[in-house]
Every structure is written in C-alpha cells, then in structure tokens.
C-alpha cells in the first residue's frame, strides 16, 4: 500500500510539472500584432494567428477594451460568440477564428484591447490561459498646416521673443516638426516646444534666427508640409568699417592725392541700414560734417593728417558703433600705388634673387680667370727643374703624365749640342714672352727622324 501511495504521489507531481510547461509553450502558439493603425471610417481586422489545430481543442475566451474604459466586447467558445448588446457598434467574431473585425472605425474605437483565451488540450484536463494585448489608433489624414506668428510686429534682437504656431484644420494624432531653411530645428536654451511640437517659442530672438520656416504635420497615416514663413529680425550694427576706392589704406590711415576728390563709405552689417554721421576731430572737440553713408572731401582744403570719425546708429535696435580714420595727402600714382601695395613683397624678393645671382656669377668668373689663365699654367709648368722632370720620366710612374709636354721636349732627337743649348735656353727664361718664343722655336725645330740617344 505504501508503494501504491508513493506511486500516486509521483504521478500527481509529474502532471503538475507538465501543465505549466504546456502553458508557457502555448503562449507562443497565439500571436497578435501589438499596434495597428487605422483610418477613420475604414474597416479594421485584428488578426489572431493560432499555431495549433482549433478543431481538436476546447477553448473559450473574451475580447475586452481596457483603455480608456474597461468594456466587454464579446465572449466566445468553440461553438458560439456572444456580443455585448449594450454596444452600438459591437465588433464581429467569426468562429472558429477568434480575430476581431470592426466594420467602421470611429473616434471612440481608438484604445487598448485585450484577448483572453483558455485552451484545453487533449489529454490535459487543466485549461491553459493565454492573454494578448493590442493598441488600436484611429486617425484622420492631416490637412495642409498653417503657421502663425505672435507678435506680428517687427522683432528686435535681444529684446523681443516670438511664438510660432503650426495648426491643421483636419487631422488627429498629429505631431509637428519644425524646419528652418530646410534644416530641422531642435530644442535649445532659446528654443522651446510644446508637447506635440505644434508651438515653437524663441526667447530672445537673434540675428541667426532669420530665415524661412516650415512646419510638417504628420500622424500614423499621413504627412503634410506647410508653406514657408519668413522670420525677420532687426539687428546691428556689426563690423563697422570705412572704405574707399581711392589711395592707399594702412591701419586706419588713408593716403590720397591732394588734387582729387576723395569719397568714403561707412559700411556695417545691420538691419535696417544704419544712419551714418561723419564727424571731424579738432583740438577743441568735434564737428559734425554731414549725414549719410557716403562722405566726400577735398584733401587740398584740409590740413595734413586730418582725423575723421564715422558713427553708425540703428534706429530700430537703438545700438550704435563708431570708427575713426586719418586722411594724409601724398602724390600717388594709382597704378604704382596698387603695384606697391600688392607686389611689394614680390619686388623685394625679386631684387634679392637677382642680386644673389649676379654676385655668384662674378665670383665664378674671377675664380675661373685666376685658375685657368694660360700664361700662369705654362709658367708654372716650366719653372720645375729638369732633373725632376727626367726622374719622373725614368720612374715611369703614372702620375708623370701630368708633365707629358716637358718629356716630349727632352726626348727630341737631334745633335747633343743643339739639345743642350735648347735646355739651357729653357732654364734661363726670364719672362713669359721668352717662354713662348722658346717653345715655338723648339717645336718648329723638332726633327722628323726619331733617335734613342737621349733616352740612354
């Protein structure tokens, strides 16, 4: 009896282990897309895929809407489906398929749904419970979005802020995206957005906020882009400078011809354009000369080194800036001035290069003249003693080829007396002129018949 009791206990424990395993495996046998999007007025089919034979099992379950309100939609089993009669537009269920079908999507159809199903597999008495959830969105296609700006008046840099609003006449579940000059605008210290990004606040506005703005309205089923809206901001003045097409400018000093009229322009980055005032500086103070962006002056009527001031004022931003310059009279040729201004460095480099080349050429000429002069070479050769020349000839060393001409003279055939006389005449050379005459005489008197008497 004890063995029978133990056996029954083991069988019950094994069955307890098998049933949970079947439950976890069956969860994968039922699949349902977690999110599905639909269009208002269109049908929708929440497809439930069962990976088991629905004809060989027993099941029952229900469909409920759990958000925003918990509502029972339909209950079912293998044979029957019982809808909730209190609902006007109750979805349909076609057995043995447990998929849910909506004939016409309405705004209140949107929400979260839950499928609960209990399955009894053959041979397993306990049912297996499966739960699946799906989120359904019902949207209206968006219309063309419109951009409005608040305030509509002019915006001044660092003083005003602006609110841009993007809205659509039709559309649900809309989310907005802002673009400036076709680049996405993101949140920053000065740029803040509403939850759906339908409102963009810029506080305060700056020069870099100027541009063409678009907003894109989009939901799960459609997307539309608005027309461009231009944002204008008053700013400046920035980068104030005085320019002139005449004369030369160096570090705030203009050099102009005294015979010509000089024209100056006061330029700055500003919106709207600045009001410029030209002021002359004197020892006792300043004097306003004229108002406007262009200044005309006659240099010959002014003292040398006259100082001027250009003051720029923006009437909208109430900001101003000023810059000063000095006018100096000098006789300048425009072409030469331009050349000296643009090619000064090149001229200096060319002068140095040419001078270096000339010096090198002169040095080479002097060295060549000193080392290769023919009179010096001949005089150096014939000043050597005759004994040294003969010794070099007898040794037969390869270095004796340097004095080859001398050995040819010594080995000239002929009478001994004439040879000795010729040798004596060579050793008594007193001048370069005699050297040339002697060599010429010896070469002219060389006999054509060779002899070996002098070489013994």
Automatic annotation (TrEMBL):
<dbReference type="InterPro" id="IPR052280">
    <property type="entry name" value="HEPACAM_domain"/>
</dbReference>
<keyword id="KW-1133">Transmembrane helix</keyword>
<dbReference type="GO" id="GO:0012505">
    <property type="term" value="C:endomembrane system"/>
</dbReference>
<keyword id="KW-0325">Glycoprotein</keyword>
<protein>
    <submittedName>
        <fullName>HEPACAM family member 2</fullName>
    </submittedName>
</protein>
<dbReference type="Pfam" id="PF13927">
    <property type="entry name" value="Ig_3"/>
</dbReference>
<feature type="signal peptide">
    <location>
        <begin position="1"/>
        <end position="24"/>
    </location>
</feature>
<keyword id="KW-0812">Transmembrane</keyword>
<dbReference type="InterPro" id="IPR036179">
    <property type="entry name" value="Ig-like_dom_sf"/>
</dbReference>
<keyword id="KW-0472">Membrane</keyword>
<dbReference type="GO" id="GO:0005737">
    <property type="term" value="C:cytoplasm"/>
</dbReference>
<dbReference type="InterPro" id="IPR007110">
    <property type="entry name" value="Ig-like_dom"/>
</dbReference>
<keyword id="KW-0963">Cytoplasm</keyword>
<keyword id="KW-0131">Cell cycle</keyword>
<keyword id="KW-1015">Disulfide bond</keyword>
<keyword id="KW-0393">Immunoglobulin domain</keyword>
<keyword id="KW-0732">Signal</keyword>
<feature type="domain" description="Ig-like">
    <location>
        <begin position="145"/>
        <end position="226"/>
    </location>
</feature>
<feature type="transmembrane region" description="Helical">
    <location>
        <begin position="345"/>
        <end position="368"/>
    </location>
</feature>
<dbReference type="InterPro" id="IPR003599">
    <property type="entry name" value="Ig_sub"/>
</dbReference>
<dbReference type="InterPro" id="IPR003598">
    <property type="entry name" value="Ig_sub2"/>
</dbReference>
<dbReference type="InterPro" id="IPR013783">
    <property type="entry name" value="Ig-like_fold"/>
</dbReference>
